[in-house]
Specification:
Elements lengths: L1 E3 L6 E10 L5 E9 L7 E8 L8 H13 L3 E6 L16 H15 L4 E10 L1 H11 L5 E7 L20 H12 L6 H4 L4 H10 L5 H5 L6 H4 L13 E7 L7 H8 L4 E6 L17 H14 L11 E6 L13 E6 L8 E6 L8 E3 L26 H4 L3 E4 L7 E5 L2 E8 L5 E9 L5 E10 L17 E7 L3 E5 L4 E7 L15 E13 L13 E3 L4 E5 L2 E8 L6 E14 L5 E13 L2 E17 L2 E13 L3 E12 L2 E13 L4
Keywords: Hydrolase
GO molecular function, one term: dipeptidyl-peptidase activity
Pfam families: Peptidase_S15 (PF02129), PepX_C (PF08530)
Length: 661
């Protein structure tokens, strides 16, 4: 990545610009802009997050926002209310208050003397979600959006209920946010006599969101609000959607490119859950240059050619040996002028011959441990590994060895006819690339709660023994399977710990299955290119403790319990400008007995530290989730320390009935 230190316009930074909301709540913003913006007004770009601009996202902020400012923009990074250095309280993700605050910040920015009245909004993950949701509210000054690693469906394509199945990330992410939002504002900004009061008020009102999300197990009004797929036409701003094949949010780019009526373009690379100018697996791209083309066209009216860009640009990954981490993925960029593309044809493959005996699917509850993380994040061992351990616990339909390579581009589907011996059952289907020596690489997967086969809003219990039809849509992918390899479709009724298990062991009888495979003519070379990555000067820090990530799977031969243990030590660094040191360590354990779905448990623990010149605070948060046949049980705890003194403690505990889950 090339570091840029000289820009067309000189940059000035405001580290704590207060933006007062209509209700009097002060939001803290870090703002970069050209030093002559008051004489020559510029468009504004907003990123609105709960992740703490002072110490949490500062690494990426420092690369990105000064770069935009140096090219003629006021780049605004706001801490959401109840987080970081902002006042107020947060009660949920993507709340009406959060979105209204974003609209109010946009209106505030547009009215400033240094702004030309036009605003863009961008973000990745939470910021990618809320910029789309804000755009749907149509604030007048918002003209363009760049949304990365986001979703159009808060229920079925987020960390909550993929395919109507309960993702363990529903609990895991609630635990993460409990920790993230437990930290205080920086006393240098909030004031020595004020930061503690703000912190304690925040802690007293801090939500543990897992029970709230578990109370909405079906696709009700709670999830429809903020789901862009409910009304794509509500978005009038121009949208650039970007994602990665190794991220959990790989479907959104296709959905937006196919459905947005406003100007829209999509880019999907080989990346994990990161901005693409520093993402991996490589190749990274010049994301900031690409973003400037978008901003210049829609916020400055400059003809940059973005309207003539292909509707959908995707990186077709070559086959590689399975590994928990890939520093790079060989492949090539392809381009489609319209999306969906008429160049992509669907090949149907019958997996079960007519008249053949039904396949019995009755997987051990521990099937799925090779699946990797829902959204890999740490540049560590989080990707899917060799699928053979899970394949051995699944029903596999191996296809003939390929005599020529194929490019799979799109969302594979499997249509099934299936009966269950229980009223609730899940099905997981994986599409794998099997090497000549048997190594199995995951290309895509899909899961479905079969009680949701007709509707996520109005699920229907299965009648034991009755055969039903269902459509399982696998995630979007772009993958070249070479000659000499074969396709494997692996079917299981457990996928731990990606999804929470059914309340009872289940047997599925699979009597028919049809794979619908999206095939694109074989790409011969890169059909588009991107410039190499550029960025502003990186964050100046010293390392106090190096980062490290570990994953272990253990089987207790006495009890039979299988446990996945995860430790992500994000390290500790000190800011060389303002002196704040911040550190973070997370641990998770996911345990289950292969024969007993009710043995499933998840536990998390987070430690967050902040310190400067003898001042230090620490928060310890822990959470646990279990279930019986009727209910989910979740609990959590916060402990906050000033120095070594415990200054706050709070516990949460709730039991929520299961509803066909």
């Amino acid at each position: 990545m090339k570091t840029v230190t000289e820009f067309p316009r000189k940059v000035v930074e405001f580290p704590d610009m207060g933006i007062v909301m209509p209700d009097g709540c002060r939001l803290s913003a870090r703002v970069w802009m050209p030093d002559d913006a008051s004489d020559d007004p510029v468009p504004a770009i907003l990123e609105h997050l709960p992740y703490r601009k002072r110490d949490s996202t500062i690494f990426r902020d420092q690369l990105t926002h000064p770069y935009f400012a140096g090219h003629g923009y006021a780049s605004i990074r706001v801490d959401m209310r109840g987080n970081g250095d902002s006042e107020g309280l947060m009660d949920d993700e993507y709340s009406e208050q959060e979105l209204q605050d974003a609209c109010d910040v946009i209106a505030w920015a547009a009215a400033q003397p240094w702004c030309n009245g036009k605003v863009g909004m961008m973000g990745i993950s939470w910021g990618g979600f809320n910029c789309l949701q804000t755009a749907a509210k149509q604030p007048p000054a918002l003209k363009a959006v760049i949304s990365l690693c986001s979703t159009v469906d808060r229920y079925a394509d987020d960390i909550h209920y993929k395919g109507g199945c309960l993702l363990i990330e529903n609990f895991g992410w609630a635990s993460t946010m409990l920790s993230y939002s437990s930290r205080p504002p920086d006393p240098l900004l909030a004031g020595d006599n004020r930061w503690r009061d703000l912190w304690l008020t925040r802690l007293e009102n801090q939500p543990f969101l897992a029970p709230l999300w578990l109370r909405h197990q079906h696709r009700d009004a709670y999830w429809k609000r903020g789901s862009i797929c409910e009304d794509y036409s509500a978005i009038k701003a121009a949208v650039l959607s970007i994602g990665g094949w190794h991220d959990g949010y790989r479907n959104t780019i296709s959905h937006l490119a196919a459905n947005i009526e406003a100007p829209v373009k999509g880019i999907v690379g080989p990346w994990i859950h990161k901005y693409p100018h520093y993402a991996a697996p490589k190749p990274a791209i010049g994301f900031l240059q690409e973003a400037l083309r978008w901003w210049d066209r829609w916020l400055k009216g400059i003809d940059t050619g973005v309207e003539a860009d292909p509707a959908y640009r995707a990186y077709v990954m070559d086959s590689v040996r399975p590994a928990r981490w890939h520093p790079e993925r060989p492949g090539r960029w392809v381009a489609e002028s319209v999306w969906p593309s008429p160049e992509i044809e669907t090949r149907e493959i019958e997996l079960i011959p007519e008249g053949a005996k039904a396949a019995i699917v009755a997987s051990p509850q521990s099937c799925g441990l090779a699946g990797g993380e829902y959204f890999p994040f740490t540049f560590g061992p989080e990707l899917p590994g060799d699928q053979r351990p899970d394949d051995a616990l699944s029903v596999c339909f191996d296809q003939p060895v390929l005599t020529e390579a194929i490019d799979i581009v799109g969302a594979p589907e499997v249509l099934v006819r299936v009966s269950s011996d229980r009223p609730q059952a899940n099905i997981a289907i994986r599409l794998c690339d099997v090497h000549p020596d048997g190594a199995s690489e995951l290309m895509s997967y899909g899961v479905l709660n079969l009680t949701h086969r007709n509707s996520h809003e109005f699920p229907e219990a299965l009648v034991p023994g009755e055969t039903v039809s269902a459509r399982v849509v696998l995630d979007q992918c772009a993958y070249r399977v070479p000659s000499g390899h074969r396709l494997r479709i692996a079917v299981s009724n457990a996928y731990w710990p990606m999804i929470w298990p059914s309340p009872e062991p289940v047997r599925l009888d699979l009597s028919a299955a049809t794979l619908k495979l999206p095939l694109r003519p074989l790409a011969q070379r890169d059909e588009v290119t991107f410039p190499p990555p550029e960025a502003a000067a990186p964050w100046a820090t010293e390392t106090v403790r190096a980062a490290n990530s570990e994953r272990h799977v253990d089987r207790d031969e006495k009890t039979g319990i299988v446990t996945l243990s995860i430790v992500d030590d994000f390290g500790e660094v000190r800011d060389l400008e303002h002196g704040l040191a911040n550190g973070s360590i997370a641990s998770e354990t996911w345990a289950i007995h292969p024969d007993n779905p009710l043995s499933a448990s998840g536990k998390t623990h987070w430690t967050q530290t902040l310190s400067r010149n003898g001042w230090s605070v620490r928060t310890e948060t822990s959470a646990e989730m279990r279930s019986d046949a009727q209910s989910f049980m979740v609990s959590a705890r916060i402990e906050a320390y000033e120095g070594e003194k415990l200054v706050f403690e709070r516990s949460f505990e709730e039991k929520i009935p299961r509803a066909l889950l």
